[in-house]
Amino acid sequence: MKTLLSIAPLGFPWQTLDPFLFCVHHNDAYPAGNAQLAPDPALLAGRHIGQDFAGKDGWSMYHGDTVPGFPSHPHRGFETVTIVRNGRIDHSDSLGATARFGGGDVQWLTAGKGIVHCEMFPLLHTDAPNPTELFQIWVNLPAKNKMAEPHFTMFWHEDIPRLTATDALGKTTEVVCIAGKLDDRQGLPPPPDSWASEPGSDLGIYTIKLSPGAKWTLPAAQSADTRRVLYFFKGGALQVAGEDVPVKSVMVVQADHDCTLANGDAESELLVLQARPIGEPVAQYGPFVMNTQAEIHQAFADYRRTEFGGWPWGANDPVHPREKGRFAKHADGKVEERG
Q1: What's the pLDDT at 295?
Q2: CB-based contacts of 258, cutoff 8 Å, min separation 6
Q3: Angstrom distance (rounded) from CA 109 to CA 107
Q4: Which of 20, 197, 216, 228 shows the smallest number of beta carbons within 10 Å?
Q5: Which intervals hold domain Pirin C-terminal (predicted)?
Q6: What SS3 state is found at 249?
Q7: Could you say which residues of the chain have pLDDT below 70?
Q8: Residue 29: which of 129, 136, 135 has the closest Cα?
Q9: What is the pLDDT of residue 321?
Q10: String of b and e for 60-71 (b: at least 16 CB within 10 Å)?
Q11: 294-330 core/surface letters (b: 16 or more CB in 10 A; e: else)
């Protein structure tokens, strides 16, 4: 059986397989910020404020109208995994949790029976650009956990396992093990009701950076039932299992095979998503992911009635003071300060 099963151009959002529902790569070259941690209002001309996804001048406001980002919105029935490679994200939610994170930090949020949250991108530097890069991945929950209690988890970049491999020519490959097991690296514990916490789910999330000319082999997954997808989002020439693959490609590979990556003359980066599928019906409408349309209708009714606990923050797009460092305040009052 071939190792490389299919190659396709990356779409928007990126193509995914069960249990992954959605994957998007935001890479915005934001300008210097003003006193409101926002772009100068003059730069907002010509944008569809509230629905700005066009990437004008190399950046988008998304649903934000002052600060870029995603003001308060609800979710039910799945999880969001937000990997912030550059810049800072200000999070607030209906549990009362709030945070500022970035520079390699990861937030893993189990929406479960319902949560409202916001994700804003404050422009902290007034005298320099504010580049912001992140992945957001939606991971489905099995039916038995769709109505679990919401759960907010932070993976600080200092704690996330990493692997650096040097090949026979002295070229290096760096792998960040955000979730799952890779060789002798074990990712941090995922939330308790996540599919990633199910025995045998074989869920893995990795980023791979190959230096020019590097060669490295991604080890086989644990199960023949696992499905593995590689996203080649940055670089030039790359061979995957001996076949040439153009940049901006998505590949499905045979998960229980070792998969050798041979890089060309430019630094290359990939995201890897793998897991055994949940294998249950999926009913999705906007921010809600359930198993039946009746459950979707119930989610809307519940949100209209309860607002999933309400919104304790006043503004729908709160941000923290400019001088505030990386931190998380959890719903139980526990505070983590990371500077």
Answers
A1: 98
A2: 3, 217, 218, 219, 220
A3: 6
A4: 197
A5: 206-309
A6: strand
A7: none
A8: 129
A9: 98
A10: bbbbbebbbbbb
A11: ebbeebeebbeeeebeebebeebbbbbeeeeebbbbb
pTM: 0.97
Q: How far is the CA of 156 from the CAs of 78, 198, 224, 334, in angstroms?
A: 22, 23, 32, 15
> In this predicted structure, what is the pLDDT of residue 177?
98
User: Which of the 8 DSSP states describes residue 149?
Assistant: P
Beta carbons of 73 and 116 less than 8 angstroms apart: yes
Provide the Cα torsion 193, 24, 154, 74; round to 10°: -60
The sheet with strand 115-120 has its strands ordered as 69-75, 115-120, 88-93, 98-102, 327-329, 335-337
> Among residues 190, 236, 232, 185, which one has the least CA distance to residue 208?
232
Structure tokens at 16: 């995914």
Q: Single out the residue of 229, 206, 230, 222 nearest to residue 257, CA to CA.
A: 222
* H-assigned helices in 201-332: 293-306
CB 19 within 8 A of CB 139: yes
Amino acid at 80: T
